[in-house]
# Entry
Amino acid sequence: MKIYNSIGDLFIDYRSFNKLSQSDFAHIINVDLRTVQRWEKNLTLIKSEKEEDIVLNTLIPYQLIHNLNGAVPIPTFYNF
# Structure
């Protein structure tokens, strides 16, 4: 089990676990490649309406996404 301190770290590990490129991941959740790159670098937050799309398409728990998607993320343990 790993503790995640940012949404970027979570997405990087998710992509690695599922052997996805940033482009593949962007296509799955229906966003632009640059958006995924900004999320992974923790430059921008996910819009709240997009959180649900990510949960439905990745099966990552909503509470995990929500905890990490904030100006002050709540560190959360998770295991893929």
